Amino acid sequence: MKQSMKKLAAGAALVLGAFGAYAADPIKIGSVLSVTGPAAFLGDPELKTLQLYVDDINKKGGVIGRPLQLVHYDDGSDANKANGFAKRLIDDDKVDLIVGGTTTGGTMSMVPLVERAGIPFISLAGAVVIVEPVKKFVFKTPHTDRMAAEKVFEDMKKRGLTKVALFSETSGFGQSGKKETEGVAAKYGVTLVANETYGPKDTDMSPQLTKIRNTPGVQAVFIFGLGQGPAIATKNYKQLGITLPLYQSHGVASDEFLKLAGPAAEGVRLPSPAQLIPEKLPANDAQKPVVTAYDKAYKAAYKSEVSTFGGYAYDGLMIAVDAIKRANSTDKTKVRDAIEATKGFVGTSGTYNMSATDHMGLDLSAFRMLEVKNGDWSLVQ
To answer: pLDDT band at residue 173, thresholds of 50, 70 and 90?
Structure first.
């Protein structure tokens, strides 16, 4: 009798324990991502990454004793939709914080809403305008477009390339990239001898590239865009027989770019986070364990290649989780303060050191210069 009572009590304790774990209010992580539309190859791996690691964290007991709940919407790469979904996350879903914004346009449409509501927001988009000037509740994990331009010009300088044609997309990311590239060119002794643009939905960029090819003195071409556009431009470049060194921005740092551009990508250089080359990093690189573990987990879950864009989502979620743990609370101001105090946090995109004046926390060393060789990424020494 005593034995069966003990068993009953133990069973009840187990049930109560399990119930207690589920009864705790979830920590709601909101997300608006471009899972479809022109920016889908950024947004799709971002969503998959958030889903993978939210599940993983919950299996390990959640955060501060509470499960995570991911509430996500697909803006279809439309900034206006991103605004509407951000409003829904804040007003209806009552999220504790937001990770993503995929694109600069989507992110900037959400910024006034999160600032007004006082909700921590970690964007996964590239443009410097997201964090400059600093906005109280807004942070980001990707390197900025200005950093990309500087890394590219640093490499061009080493190769003696000073007369450059800029070819930028008319999207928010592309136009911010254009502005930042123009702003730092002189610092590296670079003259922009041609300056053309293309639309994100353009299917042929041959006319603009022909103009660039016919520009006197041009030594290299720098394409600033994301999604499918830069891959189309790369193919057109090859079709036109242009042999000048070709650079891309970090907006195409993904194996998807290699697939879309095919053999035309051979010789292309671009700045990228370490995530694209985990096996090529030296053993003593601080990021190697992080990018290797993410690479392994993502491939196991989805049977597909990783991208730096998924890495931005990983960093955003993990910085948020780390901040909640340090704040020991989901109080929005306390979490915001903890994110801002992030120091020495090793992510897939670099080591983050945030401050009151820097809501990104990465420096130029977080970028690696890569070159496409034999259809794969190689590290430029």
So the answer is: confident
